[in-house]
Amino acid sequence: MNQQFMEKLKQQLEQELQEIEQQLEESERPEATELSNYDNHPADNASDLTDQLTEMAIDEHRGDNAEEIKRALQAMQDGTYGKCAVCGEEIPQGRLEAMPKALTCVEHAEQKEEELRPVEEEVLSASPKSDDFVEVEEFGSSDTPSDKN
Q: What is the dihedral of CA 95, 99, 100, 104, to 10 degrees?
């Protein structure tokens, strides 16, 4: 990879990082819109909560992006940028142009996504087995003893 291409990507990453950090600084912290929830309709409270959670999720995403960019910039300083962090193969320039913060080849990026699946998926299946409900009912239900006869 030539030095001019590397410098272009570095400037692009630094600019993107600066924009993200500025957005994070300007981001408003969630706050309640009313002093009391007594006379608020539950739907209004739900709308406020949804707005707050959306803002928090966006900020978290921005923070994750900033961390990825910082890792890519550090790899540039270390001289490891452009090589897959898993297998050591060269990352194609097309991938780096499309995603300058990439530290893995496409093959290993897909493996990373698979690793991020929720832990619950290992235990839960998409379609419950018929005996799953019997097990759950052992922990209690609203049925009275006369309902079970």
A: -60
